[in-house]
Amino acid sequence: MRDLKTIFNKEEYDVLIIGGGINGAAIANIASRQGLSVALVEKEDFASGTSSRSTKLVHGGLRYLENFEFDLVRESLRERYIQWKSVPHLVKPLRFIIPVYKGDRRPLWMMKLGVFLYDFLSGKYVVEKHQTLTTKDVIAAIPHIKREGLVGGVAYSDCRMDDARLCLENILSARESGAHIANYAEAVSFLKVGTQLTAGANIKDILTGKQITIKAHHVICAVGPWTNEILRLDTPTEQDKIRLTKGVHIIYKDKIADTALLLQAGKDHRVFFVIPFGEHSLIGTTDTDYAGKPDEVESDRDDVEYLLSEAGKFLPNIKLQRENIVATFAGLRPLVFASGNPSKLSRNHVIEENKSGVMYIMGGKYTTYRAIAQQCVEKVLSGKKLNLGEDYPLYGSGSHEMNEAQLAKTFNLSIATCAYLLSKYGTKCKDVLNLVSQDRKLAELLCPCSLAIKAQVVYSLQSEMAVTADDIIWRRLSLGYHFCATKQCRKVIDTLCAR
Ligand SMILES: Cc1cc2nc3c(=O)[nH]c(=O)nc-3n(C[C@H](O)[C@H](O)[C@H](O)COP(=O)(O)OP(=O)(O)OC[C@H]3O[C@@H](n4cnc5c(N)ncnc54)[C@H](O)[C@@H]3O)c2cc1C
């Protein structure tokens, strides 16, 4: 059984980060690369909060143009490019089509202007230029699309990502640079100097129940939706600083189209997506105020009904059915507190230090995580500007010694399996394959439902800090999002974990 005292063995750290979502993970990575001593604690698994429940897009956010958030869009488009170029195994271009109908609140001219402006703001960071589409083009690309009233459309590009693994690669890179890190370790109270100043935190090991204290010069709370709760742990009289809105997605069994769709909901005029997701489709998201506890967020009947019925209006021939939903997931947007329609609230972030000297990160998008983390570390370094350039390599980044065909020959596996492993692990794919060399049984598929092999489970436990079967199913291998008739993969993972 692990002992947190041996992981966090320094008397005092430069920085203690509470929260192992994307923001905490990236702060740990950038800070440790700057030579700072870093401790990070996460109360569940890395990315188990909002950072594995996003729409999984690295995007400028076409819809933020409507709110005139040009700076946010410009910054996001630059970040999109940096992540695509730096971590190409996890961040990949994706083409979107927006079909436009007679009477739409956002008519064709507005959509044309929007995608033109989007590419203009991208400047040299463009992924693939936009296009105007005729009705015929839209139908050719999405044969199931509703034809009645269709007047044309536009196409533009953004990127998709594996959100949980991108977060994990930040964690693993930080650990490689010397950061001390633990999941299933919760900050339960702050360590005070005198009455006010915070000098660390008391951490409870969720696996053993034991408690330790971590001292640090700087304490950073990157706890996303848990910000209001932790604020009051520090200062009981604090008012709410973030507003939580719930976003639900469904994974639909069929792949509806090879291209992603951006659609305008008839009910409330919000935009939502239908995105090809392996063999399936990802449909989302909703945006409704949430007043419950962040740990208890889940999708309900109304959320699912909204998504099925709004998507169904555009896909009349498919007849979307509840029975064909493979999975649903719900996440919370930790938005900087403001009143008004949730969909219109800014996705900009704020970094604020409270009276006790604790730094809080509020708001923000996944896409801009690198920039947010850089700003936090600059604050820790008393405002010193960091020139990180436009390269942000992570754990599995770098050029490959062998392509999938060569790996398949060397390790006696199928080309499809090797291509799959390359796209999950990048250069670290070799470490997974070395396990296969040591034990040939680990080359076996977990289950016919996917290309995942047994070696990945061992690798998740040995090298990727997975603790539970769920950590592996949802955040290391993403199997939870895939349809499996037999659930054999879960049984095999349980058996390997128990061993
Ligand atoms: C439905 C939805 C869709 C989205 N889609 C996109 C998208 O496609 N693209 C995009 O750019 N952005 C998207 N976003 C926004 C993006 O996902 C978030 O901005 C981002 O994930 C927030 O990361 P975080 O690290 O701040 O929070 P989180 O990922 O929630 O991490 C906070 C962590 O802190 C931990 N924690 C809490 N309290 C404690 C404690 N006391 N001790 C230790 N650990 C603690 C939690 O367990 C959690 O893991 C979306 C958001 C939602 C809700």
Question: Which properties best describe this structure?
Answer:
globular, 8-stranded mixed β-sheet, FAD/NAD(P)-binding domain, 18 strands, alpha+beta, Helicase, Ruva Protein, domain 3, binds flavin-adenine dinucleotide, 10-stranded mixed β-sheet
Written description of the protein model:
The protein contains 15 helices and 18 strands. It has 499 residues and is an alpha+beta fold. It folds into three domains: 161 residues, FAD/NAD(P)-binding domain, CATH 3.50.50.60; 165 residues, D-Amino Acid Oxidase, Chain A, domain 2; 95 residues, Orthogonal Bundle (Helicase, Ruva Protein, domain 3), CATH 1.10.8. Strand 13 and strand 14 form a beta hairpin. The longest helix is centred in the N-terminal third of the chain and has 17 residues. The structure holds flavin-adenine dinucleotide (FAD). Flavin-adenine dinucleotide binds next to helix 2, strand 8 and strand 16.
CATH class of the largest domain: Alpha Beta
Overall mean pLDDT: 95
Derived structural class = alpha+beta
How many individual domains? 3
- Hey, roughly how much beta strand do the residues contain? 15-25%
Short description:
The protein has 15 helices and 18 strands. The protein is α+β, with helices and mostly antiparallel strands.
